[in-house]
Amino acid sequence: MSYIDMCRKATEIQAARKPNNGDMVARYNLKHMQYETAFVPIDSASIEFGKGCPLIWLPRIEDLVEMVTDPKWGCDAHDHWLDDFYLFTQRIGGVNGNDSIQEMVLKFTMYKRYSKTWDGGQWL
To answer: Is the dihedral of CA 109, 114, 115, 120 positive or negative?
Structure first.
């Protein structure tokens, strides 16, 4: 699975989106049967890029880190985030060489904030 698929299926993350200029989004191009990505401003360009297809927000690492550094989620500072992230990677058996850092941070965020894990095809 790609980061785009993981983000698409992370409905809680999609719902938490706070649009910012320069967000990375994706849409599925039916003609070419593949995802296309773009940095879009918050204006009509993002609507044009979507062309009737739902846009998938691809959060930056800092967006994901911010989601779990809120004290109510158990990480009260970025220093603690790194410790928690390390412990999480050890709990799941270390860093998989096939996972990008974005995928690992998304997995950590979904686990920490929503108690969900990735089984290779969906969030459980």
So the answer is: negative
